[in-house]
Amino acid sequence: MATVDSRGPVVSRTETRLRRTIVHEAAPGSYLWWLRPGDADPVARTAMPENMRPAVSEASSVRLRFVLPDPDRDGLTYRVGSPLSAAFWQGAGPVVEDRLSEVLGDVVRGLARLHRIRVWTTPAQPPGIARLRHWLDHPDLRDGGARLHRLARRAWGPAGLRRIAEWAAAAGGRTGTMLHGNLSLSAVVPTLDGTGPVELLTGAELSGGDPAFDLGWLLGELRELAFVAGTDTDPLTAAVLRAADPALLDRPARHQATVLRIVTHMRDHACAMPWTDELADYTDLISALLDAAPRSTQETLR
Fold first, then answer.
1. What pLDDT is stored for residue 300 in this prediction?
2. How far apart are CA 3 and CA 251, in angstroms?
3. Can you tell me the mean pLDDT for 218-227?
4. Ramachandran angles phi, psi of 212, nearest 5°
5. pLDDT number for residue 46
6. Contact status, residue 224 vs residue 265, Cβ threshold 8 Å
7. Rounded to whole angstroms, how far apart are CA atoms 221 and 183?
8. At CA 117, angle to CA 239 and CA 173, rounded to 5?
9. Model pTM score
10. In whole angstroms, what is the distance from residue 73 CA to residue 115 CA?
11. Lowest mean pLDDT among 1-10, 109-118, 159-168, 256-265
12. What ranges do the domains of the chain cover?
């Protein structure tokens, strides 16, 4: 039976050692997503600075709404119109995939408005990048984290690990363009009937840097999903590429973020979930992406 508190009945609950998400039905057509860190990521998320909220809200449009969180005990709460993210609908068949292609096109075009916001003080790096850098710098971590580090060192060599560390050091955490950070299907809340704007959970991982980072991070998630599905063609990736500013596709940060997104997910799974031998396949994927990197991506953005 669904539990009830002041937020309303619980309609879904997802808990890992990295993140805990509880979705409440506050009213018909209104849902509260309560996001909290797990014990493997003990740093509580803080809501974005109040002085940035108006600018982010103004970046919304009739097609895409940037949903901002409110502090809620040790986490954040978002109010949206659906209990399901795009991650739930991905892979549900061609009809839904066509709708999600439209949704991601709206997301990518909407990001262009967010990327017009300037960041004048040096922000923190996105938390995923911070976790990745800690893992790269502390190979003596216990359990799955240490096992993955040994596996990665054998697969990529010291030079490959060093290159990933350099890319991570330069990813976000700089003045300039506002970054969404952790742009993921799990942060996209669509209405599959096409009514109302797409909603994008925003504000927990805002940073600053090259806007190609956000694009590459999303493409990294889609590349991983295609890899798991055993396919080289993905309609969602095609939709993102069509909607993206072509200039961002050629920037080193785009390819770097694609690699960093997959490695970060590898690290998070190894450190917060039971070990799976499929991680060896992931190291092969990263090896291929490192080998295929354009020469320009060997440069670290400053």
1. 44
2. 48
3. 95
4. -65, -20
5. 60
6. yes
7. 9
8. 90
9. 0.92
10. 30
11. 1-10
12. 84-292
Tokens 């009213």 locate to 27
CA distances from 86 to 65, 189, 211, 232 (A): 15, 6, 22, 20
The b/e string for 53-65 (b: 16+ C-beta within 10 A; e otherwise) is eeebeebbeeebb
- Which three-class secondary structure string do you get for the chain? CCCEECCEEEEEEEECCCEEEEEEEEECCEEEEEEEECCCCCCCCCCCCHHHHHHHHHCCCCCEEEECCEEECCEEEEEECCCCCHHHHCCCCHHHHHHHHHHHHHHHHHHHHHCCCEECCCCCCCHHHHHHHHHHHCCCCCHHHHHHHHHHHHHHHHHHHHHHHHHHHCCCCCCEEEECCCCCHHHEECCCCCCCCEEEECCCCCEEECCHHHHHHHHHHHHHHHHHHCCCCCHHHHHHHHHCCHHHHCCHHHHHHHHHHHHHHHHHHHHHCCCCCHHHHHHHHHHHHHHHCCHHHHCCCC
What dotted CATH number matches 84-292? Answer: 3.90.1200.10
Q: Is the pLDDT of residue 102 over 60?
A: yes
